[in-house]
Task: structure prediction
Amino acid sequence: MTLANPLLARWKGRQVLTSESRPRVAVVTGASSGIGKATAEALAAQGFRIIAHGRDAGRCASAEADIRKSSTSGDVTMLRADLSLMADAARLADEITGLTDRVDVLVNNAGGMASELVLTSEGNDANFAGNHLGPFLLTNRLLPLLRRAAQDAPAGSVRIVNTSSDASEMIEGIDFDDMQQLGDWSSGYAYCGSKLANVLHAHALAGMLASDGIIAHSVHPGTADSNFFSTMGEETRRYADTLDKITNEEGADTVVWLATAEEPGQCSGLYWHKRELRTPNPLVDDADYIARFWTASEELANQVNTV
Result:
């Protein structure tokens, strides 16, 4: 098969098998379009077994067909879930567990920016929940599969990658008494807070999973020309229209590199852009803040148990 896209072609054939010569398994959320889809296609071209996630039925069907075209293993599954709902995130984790006993790569890519506050049936801000709480819960539920993969995988090859944004750098912090800012909500602040949460999440995971040999990183992929901007408010969208944009494949490049290349497997808990280290929000260096962040996230995400 000839791959017309050079950024996709560069990854083809670079698959590393487990010690049992089985294709590695990659879970990619938000893979029905944009950077997530480009990431899934690139990993599929390496021979990964792909378990992809999306929300919209039509986009999921189209993306699954495209990812399958890129696949060298032919093993592609697309699952649907709304990660703004903790019950759906938990169900997605159960479905993934029913499909595989191991996950070698988890890419938490799903996310967006809302123009207005929408409360879910579980009482959460749909935007913050979809960007952070759902992926947080999904990751926690998939840790046994990641640990299982790490038992017989090459050191540093089992990875978690969180797609964040430079918006994570534009906020002084998160109010743990009102983590979703429901008392004083604004679109920009909510988005910045959720993207900071992605960085804090990866940093916390790195420390927690070091003894398991599991790597966790976060990434600012750049401003990609995708449907990400379709949900923004008019003023924000006008500003976004003035920005130079990269392709989805260019945005996915560092994500795929973090998931598969040798260099990022030799460190953990860092924040990247264009395959280079980028200075994160200074709060990542505050161990007490990270601990409080984890506790507050658990309290909100675990409300699934009462739904």
The first helix runs from residue 6 to 9. The chain is about 40% helix and 10% strand. The two ends are 47 Å apart (CA to CA). The chain has a mean pLDDT of 89.
